[in-house]
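Lab notes, practical 5.
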Amino acid sequence: MANETKLPVTRKTLAPVPAQDAWRPLEALRKEVDRLFEDFSGDDFWRRPLRSLAGIERNMAKQFAAVPAVDVSESDKAYEITAELPGMDEKDIEVNVANGALTIKGEKKEEKEEKQKDYYVSERRYGSFERYFELPDGVDAGKIEAAFKNGVLRVTLPKTAEAQKPAKKIEVKAA
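Output from the prediction step:
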């Protein structure tokens, strides 16, 4: 004997999603590919400069731009923020404390130039990021330190002496 349910079961037919809405995330890429094909067609092809593929890369990067992920940890004496910043140097990174907040900024500039007998390639990449953190209560802002080694930034936020005291346990009594 089959199990029966006492709950009413209703089926609702969903309206189909219009085709143009389903492909909207790929629309920018499609337009760029269409422009590339237009560059290679037409009678005046040899007289027009080619559109750079770097333009497509820049447009896609803007849409999917990411800031570096960070790890935040706490010990008895300090908080620590760790950020992986591969390919960057300490001169490209700025750490500031102001108005109860910590800001980590970075800018990466990369230029590549290659000259050979038959061709010449010049590429430039630029990108910047900014992360903002409110300082928790009990941080000694005057003693914050930052160190950068092997592409990893570590910012140490030491706690004040008051914040390092253990929590006081309150006994719960029966009323």
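Observations recorded by the TA: The first helix runs from residue 19 to 22. The chain has a mean pLDDT of 76.
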